[in-house]
Amino acid sequence: xxxxxxxxxxxxxWKPGQSGNAAGRPPGARQKIAEKLIxxxxxxxxxxxxxxxxxLAIEEPAKLATIAFGLVPKDIFLNxxxxxxxxxxxxxxxxxxxxxxxxxxxxxDGVAPSLVFETIExxxxxxxxxxxxxxxxY
Length: 138
What we know:
Oligomer: single chain
Number of helices: 5
Radius of gyration: 35 Å
Order of helices and strands: HHHHH
């Protein structure tokens, strides 16, 4: 069985901000390398970028798709995956849009929405009302 031991760091341990290698990478060196690499890539792109993409599209389309996917901002994928407003299913949303289109096409200008909805409710109740049956004779 492994037993963990409590080891204390020696008093000569490096403190935050100190380096054990005074001849190490100077601050900002990594950023300078990245900037130089980007500049070199831009230069190569200007010289033959489109031709390389055309060849890649023919010879390795999956690799081209991977590169393109990596360049697309991630928030675009969130926008594409959004659901219909109100959490409606697509067919429910289509029905609601149809109702709204009918209202806009048939309701007179200036009529309050509340009056439109009262009219719709009255029409539905009238259309689907059950007939009142005569009470049974006693």
